Amino acid sequence: MIPIRDHNPSERTPYVTLCLIALNIAIYLAGLALFQDQRALSQLYYDYALLPVRLSDGENHVALVTSIFLHGGFMHLAGNMLFLWIFGDNLEDEMGHIPFLIFYLACGIGASLAQYVTDPTSTIPTVGASGAIAGVMGGYLLLYPKARVDIFIFFIVFFRILPIPAWIMLGLWFALQLFSGVSVDTSAGGVAYWAHAGGFIIGFLFTLPLWFKRGGTLFWRQTHGHPPHPEARYTRSSIPIVRR
């Protein structure tokens, strides 16, 4: 279940979201050469990734920020940037450019700390913007629960694009992070599920003051749970459907 777009893109240019995407891509491309040098790559992660054991020793607190701009591979980067592009623009439009940047960084730091407290002595580096973007998703869910999101569903030979309300897509995603965090052993590495879940909750809570300022449930009634922008008109593809 992969989101590919929402139906209410922001009307103003999301400069911060675009800059964050560009910065993440630039850092990844700059570090590609290090993937061929294991020693240099290990040093990069030691210096800039979040190593819980170092944080427990009172070292390298800057990694709480630098780690959210590192990615472990192309698909890791591409998935994160897709989610940021879909959900970041409307939140930036609602918050304003600078407040959104502060919100994003705060969610990233909070998500890193959420992952840290699950295993403070871990020597496995944590990298990726997933926690910060999970915070964006949490804020989006609070402000625009009924916004329509097109998701690409594939199951073996079944492929389909379906528009569903944001609360279903984001709610299922959050539930999956909680379930995986409880049931999956990540002591040897893998997905930082608690960073995702923690970032989502933090983003939701950090957005509450803005939601109350907009009127709370009155804001939902006024916008019908959608971003306050006209829906985009997507035309049907001219690519012919090949029947089985």
Descriptive keywords:
10 helices; three-stranded antiparallel β-sheet; mainly alpha; 244 residues; globular
What does this structure look like?
There is one protein chain. The chain contains 10 helices and 3 strands, in the order βαααααααββααα. A 3-stranded antiparallel sheet has the order 1-2-3. It is 58% helix and 9% strand. Helix 8 runs antiparallel to helix 9 (193-213). The chain is globular. The protein has helices spanning 15-31, 38-48, 52-56, 63-66, 74-95, 97-118, 130-143, 166-183, 193-213, 217-223; strands at 2-6, 148-155, 158-165. It is mainly alpha-helical. Strand 2 and strand 3 form a beta hairpin.
**Which radius of gyration do the C-alpha atoms yield?**
19 Å
Which descriptor suits the 3D outline? Answer: globular
Low-confidence stretches: none
Mean pLDDT: 88
Largest sheet: 3 strands, antiparallel
Strands side by side in the biggest sheet: 1-2-3
Helix-strand sequence: EHHHHHHHEEHHH
Secondary-structure content class:
mainly alpha
Short structural description:
The protein has 10 helices and 3 strands; from the N terminus they run βαααααααββααα.
Topology, pairings included?
Elements: E1 2-6, H1 15-31, H2 38-48, H3 52-56, H4 63-66, H5 74-95, H6 97-118, H7 130-143, E2 148-155, E3 158-165, H8 166-183, H9 193-213, H10 217-223
Antiparallel strand pairs: 1-2, 2-3
Helix pairs in contact: 1-5, 5-6, 5-7, 6-7, 6-9, 7-8, 7-9, 8-9
